[in-house]
Design a protein that fits this description.
Layout lengths: L1 H39 L9 E5 L42 H8 L19 E3 L19 H30 L1 E5 L2 H7 L8 H24 L4 E5 L8 H7 L8 H24 L4 E5 L1 H10 L14 E2 L19 E2 L16 H13 L5 E3 L2 H6 L1
Parallel strand pairs: 1-2, 1-3, 3-4, 4-5
Antiparallel strand pairs: 5-8, 6-7
Helix pairs in contact: 2-9, 3-5, 5-7
Bound molecules: 2-acetamido-2-deoxy-beta-D-glucopyranose (3 copies).
Pfam families: Lipase_GDSL
Protein name: GDSL esterase/lipase 5
Organism: Senna tora
């Protein structure tokens, strides 16, 4: 009896010590980085911030907060069905590339910049807006174009200076990584879906789009940004939507849009090589998604998919019609059972599994795909 009654409190004491130890270590683990990041956010314990510019491919829900239409929104089911299990505004069944990059960089889960509850920019901000282009005319009035995203960034910088001072802000901005993918909507609007086109006109638009992107890169650099990650455009002419427009039975690609996106990537890659020589401290990672997504479409099983050309959600022979969710005019749409088997989720956008694959290629992809640095090198630099 006596031994028994002694053993019980003893065990209780051990359990208490263990519990306390666990509590202290958990507390330290969770709270200490926060405390550190308040007082000395850019110390080695806090990863570089991530600033994101772009369109629906990167938009984690900014368009939920602006005046636009359901064409530029994905805040309804089945968007978000697999990972979040509710629609967040992301154009996919689950997470997008910036979500994965943030995760690989050990950054906290990001909220869209335009979410009124989001005001601490210590870890960066996502300014991307579905439907947006590098040209202000693209879907004007319904999206946050690239120049306005740049203004948002400059506002963030002002707010940071008020909170953490000039020195810490300059440090945060120069150590941060700037992720960008834009142009698809400019080509969709200004090159269009016509099968007749003039290559000279396509080249002209490519020059205009890439020149506007260059201006924004230079402005970010002038504001202290140094490390840039670019996701090249994938072949817009071969999206399920454009295959369906081109020829419902063969699903051939729309040549003008294939050319526009291909030339865009070539032009941007030449510009980046030039900027690397011109701009002090400028470093970048450029990911060739064009060849990769073409190969994923043609050989889906090589990448663990079953279907590379037909979308998971939409209507028509390639489910390329932009009706996923039934809120964009047409109520009828089909939905696949398992998005993990599909490269494309809707007529334009990819499924989470394909985005995850791309994010990985941006993070640690070999030089044939991501060049001259990869994102991990930029974050660790
Ligand atoms: C939103 O856009 C619609 C259509 O363009 C317009 O009628 C409405 O006044 C706008 N609302 C605000 C708050 O700007
Ligand atoms: C940027 O785009 C506008 C059209 O939105 C165009 O007028 C302008 O020339 C472009 N900028 C450059 C540097 O090409
Ligand atoms: C569409 O593709 C089918 C099958 O390859 C072909 O027979 C037809 O001529 C094509 N239609 C057009 C308008 O190109």
């Amino acid at each position: 009896m006596e031994a028994e009654s002694r053993r019980i409190p003893h065990q209780g004491y051990v359990a208490l010590v263990l519990c306390f130890g666990l509590f202290v270590s958990t507390f330290c683990y969770i709270v200490k980085p926060c405390l550190l990041s308040r007082s000395n956010h850019s110390s080695s314990s806090s990863p570089p911030a991530l600033f994101v510019f772009g369109s629906s491919i990167f938009d984690i829900g900014n368009n939920n907060y602006i005046n636009t239409t359901s064409l530029n929104r994905a805040n309804f089911w089945p968007y978000g069905e697999t990972f979040f299990r509710y629609p967040t505004g992301r154009f996919s069944d689950g997470r997008l590339i910036p979500d994965f990059i943030g995760e690989y960089a050990r950054l906290p889960v990001a909220l869209p910049y335009h979410n009124p509850g989001y005001q601490s920019y210590i870890h960066g901000a996502n300014f991307a807006s579905a439907g947006a282009g590098a040209l202000v005319e693209t879907h004007k009035g319904y999206v946050i174009d690239l120049k306005s995203q740049l203004s948002d960034f400059i506002d963030v910088k002002k707010s940071l200076r008020q909170r953490i001072g000039d020195y810490e802000t300059a440090k945060l901005v120069s150590e941060a990584v700037y992720l960008m993918n834009i142009g698809t909507n400019d080509y969709a609007v200004f090159v269009g879906k016509s099968t007749k086109y003039s290559p000279e006109r396509v080249q002209e638009i490519v020059n205009m789009v890439t020149a506007n992107i260059t201006e924004v890169i230079k402005e970010i650099h002038k504001n202290g940004g140094r490390k840039f990650g670019f996701l090249g455009l994938w072949n817009l002419g071969c999206s399920p939507g454009n295959r369906q427009t081109s020829n419902e039975s063969s699903g051939s690609c729309l040549e003008a849009l294939s050319l526009a996106t291909k030339w865009h990537n070539i032009q941007l890659s030449m510009i980046l090589q030039k900027l690397e020589k011109e701009l002090k401290g400028f470093k970048y990672a450029h990911t060739n998604s064009y060849d990769l997504i073409n190969d994923m479409s043609d050989n889906p099983s090589k990448y663990g998919f079953k279907e590379g050309k037909v979308a998971c959600c939409g209507s028509g022979p390639f489910r390329g019609h932009n009706s996923c969710g039934g809120k964009r005019g047409d109520q009828y749409y089909e939905l696949c059972e398992n998005p993990n088997e599909f490269v494309f989720f809707d007529g334009i956008h990819l499924c989470e599994k394909a985005y995850k694959f791309l994010a990985n290629q941006m993070w640690v992809g070999d030089r044939g795909i991501t060049w001259p640095y990869n994102l991990r090198e930029l974050f660790e630099d």
